[in-house]
Design a protein that fits this description.
Blueprint (H helix, E strand, L loop, with lengths): L7 E6 L7 H15 L3 E5 L2 H7 L2 E3 L27 E4 L5 E4 L2 H10 L4 E6 L1 H12 L4 E5 L15 H22 L2 E6 L6 H10 L3 E3 L7 H14 L4 E6 L11 E4 L7 E3 L2 H13 L3 E5 L11 H20 L4 E6 L2 E6 H5 L10 H8 L8
Parallel strand pairs: 1-2, 1-6, 6-7, 7-14, 8-10, 8-13, 9-10
Antiparallel strand pairs: 2-3, 4-5, 11-12, 14-15
Helix pairs in contact: 1-9, 2-3, 5-6, 7-8
The chain binds 6-O-phosphono-beta-D-fructofuranose (F6P).
Length: about 375
């Protein structure tokens, strides 16, 4: 690294926050400053702050003691895509414009030689385009949704599973005491990884995911059967993106400021209402929402984040740009950012988790 031209690097956290972001920031900053003698600039509030030129130099003090801290000390935003940037006109109307040139300008103004972009598919799409405009970028895959291709896991997913599984465990005891059907809706966007992972770990009786559209009758049959012949309660773990065979995902809100305007949510309530109406079984609905995104990362996520962050620095030291660090098996590797954005990683309907869940009697609402 002694002869390297890289002197100053930036770090940005883009999109929704998730546990483990601070662990990556810490790993990148400590390793960049300590191992490679680099200056590290923290970009504030994601790409929004990058467009606006809000950043500052990080020091050891700022990145110490944050390993176990949830969220991101840098701040983030899921409305700051520089290529789809919402700007308020004089008439108060929001206009979507391309502000990518401002990012490039700020990168140069702050004399950055490279950038570590920590984020999910949105951030990797942005990074890929910025790389084409000449920025030296290394990506680090983050998202509770675990829907990024080219890496076996994203950091944040394990922590989300931990919270969702604990919630199911807690619902189990009260469901059983009151002989109720408990519906729990979890995040995950268009992928069912969180619902599947937590549903399997928590022993849900029905798991509904976007990849396997459900039949209403199949849900009613399962909860009625259990109420008559099994335990007198049921747990239904539903992904926010789950949808019936003959219907669509439930959209809570459209927000044009986001690259993907759809904000999902509401399928849990709908399922709860229908179960009550059709089966007369007492039903309660819990929407976990952002609880799965907040709080401390699990030990697994802290370690994955630390390994990702250190590998990102190694790539920068090698001058290997346009790559994203990735978990392959139990090794940290790197893949072209392009490979991570060609398609979304959805749950394969015949994966081992689904087969195992079916084998222990879990319904996916499709029989
Ligand atoms: O991508 C992470 C995620 O938490 C999704 O699971 C969810 O659909 C979305 O972000 C929620 O976004 P927001 O924080 O803007 O409500």
């Amino acid at each position: 690294m002694a002869q390297s031209k890289i002197k100053r690097i930036g770090i940005v956290t883009g999109g929704g926050d998730c546990p483990g972001l601070n662990a990556v920031i810490r790993a990148v900053a400590k390793s960049a400053m300590g191992e490679y003698g680099l200056t590290v600039i923290g970009i504030e509030d994601g790409f929004e702050g990058f467009v606006e030129g809000r950043m500052h130099e990080l020091d050891n003090k700022e990145v110490s003691g944050i390993l176990s801290l949830g969220g991101t000390i840098l701040g983030t935003s899921n409305k700051g895509d520089p290529f789809h940037y919402p700007e308020e006109g004089l008439n108060g109307k929001i206009e979507i414009v391309d502000e990518s040139a401002r990012v490039v300008r700020n990168y140069r103004r702050w004399a950055l030689d490279a950038l570590v972009a920590i984020g999910g598919d949105g951030t990797m799409h942005i990074s890929n385009k910025l790389a084409e405009m000449g920025l030296n970028i290394v990506g680090v895959p983050k998202t509770i949704d675990n829907d990024l291709a080219a890496t076996d896991l994203t950091f944040g997913y394990d922590s989300a599973l931990f919270v969702a599984t604990e919630a199911i465990d807690r619902l189990h005891t009260t469901a059983s005491s009151h002989h109720r059907v408990m519906v729990i809706e979890v995040m995950g966007r268009y992928a069912g990884w969180i619902a599947l992972g937590a549903g399997l770990a928590g022993g849900a009786d029905i798991i509904l995911i976007p990849e396997i559209p459900f039949k209403w009758d199949s849900i009613y049959k399962k909860v009625k059967e259990r109420s008559l012949h099994g335990k007198r309660f049921s747990i239904v773990c539903v992904a926010e993106g789950a949808k019936p065979k003959d219907g669509d995902m439930v959209v809570k809100e459209m927000d044009e400021k986001r690259t993907d305007a759809r904000r999902l949510g509401g399928i849990g309530e709908m399922i709860g209402d229908c179960i009550t109406q059709e089966t007369r079984l007492e039903t309660r609905v819990t929407v976990l929402g952002h609880l799965v995104r907040g709080g401390s990362p699990t030990p697994f996520d802290r370690n994955l984040s630390t390994k990702f962050g250190c590998h990102a620095c190694e790539l920068i030291a090698q001058g290997k740009f346009g790559y994203m660090v990735a978990l392959r098996g139990n090794r940290i590797e790197d893949v072209p950012i392009k490979d991570a954005i060609t398609k979304q990683k959805l749950v394969p309907p015949f994966c081992q988790e689904i087969l195992a869940a079916r084998a222990v009697g879990t319904s996916f609402g499709d029989e």
